[in-house]
Known about the structure:
By secondary structure, the chain is of the alpha/beta class.
Amino acid sequence: MDTGWSQAEVVALGVEAVAYAAFDAGIKAVFGYPGTPSTEGFERAELLIRAENAGRRAHWAANEKVAYELGLGVSYAGYRTLVTMKHVGLNVAMDAFVNSALTGVQGGFVLLVADDPGMHSSQNEQDSRYLADFAHVPCLEPATGQEAYDYTREAYGLSERLKLPVMLRLVTRLAHCRGSVARRAPDPVSSVGLPHPSEVPGWILAPANARAQYQRLKQKLGPLLAEISPYNRLVPGAARRGLALAGLGRALFFELAREAPRLLDWPRLEVSGLPLGADLIDRFLGQADEIFVFEEDYPYVEDLLRNHAAGVAVHGRRDRTLSPTGELSASQVRDVLGIEHPAGKAPVTLSVPPRPPRFCEGCGHVDAVVALKEALGRVGAAGTRIFGDIGCYALAAGAPYDAMHACVEMGASVGMALGAAFAGLQPGVAVIGDSTFVHSGLPGFTSFARARANLTLLIMDNRATGMTGQQPVETVDSLERIVTGLGMDPAHVHTIVPLARRHADNAAVIEAALRHEGPSVVICRRECVQASRKGVNREHDLSVREAARG
């Protein structure tokens, strides 16, 4: 049949390759919460959907759990969907993620999770393969942009055959590596229909149903291993030394093997899909006396091999053959395998001055922080500890501000300030961004608003999720109604515009909040300078002005 489609080739980031594939697989909708290095995956899918304008949806959710639940609803309706997040976001979505394995899915459901080994833009290193294992969900791990595209396309069929969500795990180096990707003829957007009435109880995880679904999930292991098997390859070799390669470790090895082709004679276990069957592991271990494992970032495959190894030496991160933390590098692989480093490339000796991250020129957070510091001094609490959160404003932790003393995870500032106040650290001061507040601050705020303690919360409302690229926030200009709706006394909810010329007034407002022997909220509203340049809220502002004109 002539579809009018000719194979197209695009230059794309790894996460964009996933987006192209999901679009070509006929997804009805994409959902996500921004977080480096996953953000561009959603944004590419959004661009494709907007350009097509054919009833598909792209929607940034309040947080990853909500994004996952939105995707689950699309799947229930029988359509294919893509959900994107970074590794720590999967922690937020874990409840929905784990339980979706029990309910199963209807339309194909692919979860793109981008891990960040080396913590380029994250508060921790975390390997999402363990969470896929924990949830009994298949995980595919591409090593190239083309594989990211191909695996995503295949993941939708895999998801619908197994009736399980499929995790696609990328790491930073692949997520942000740009290369040529060949696209294939697209699938139409279509529904496989609602779950059959006989399947409906499985979607209701009351204990009796959940127990039955858990048994069915366990029974899927056999078909799952059969479906995953083609993604893993055992390559025999003449040597008694072997290699286990997964994800980026696989990519690095084959790049370096061009310089040392002798290594291709070693037996290899190439891993692209999980779970890994015990039979395959045992057959591989039988071919070597010593094995080197290259994977990113926890020793997941290494531990699987160690659990089966008897008389076989397994080398990797556990025995510190490789660094136990940080990214896997080509230099490390060279050292372990005895591949010479390139000659004639002396280390760079340029003396480059340190360039710590800093606020953008004209950022309103700076004016808010300066006003807060002055107000704390006026109330005699200059040395108090300020509980901060994830976002641009965390830059206030550094010089010259020294205005943040804790930053743990999304939304933590609200609960930590309250807990510290319970312990006697008053005035309790918390600082959080608007997007982060809606993401994870709201549950803690329900206690904060009703606390009988001297607490002040500054919500840095820059009308965008600024740190990850100025994505829009659904609750734009609504924070006053939200916090009063959750129990705040309107008399102690203040809104300021953090500008230098308003510094005196702003410091006075914050001072009054700090002196109040109860909870106070100061909303520091000034649009992110980058979002303003992009016109992120242009449509919203136009609609507000039109409504005001009647």
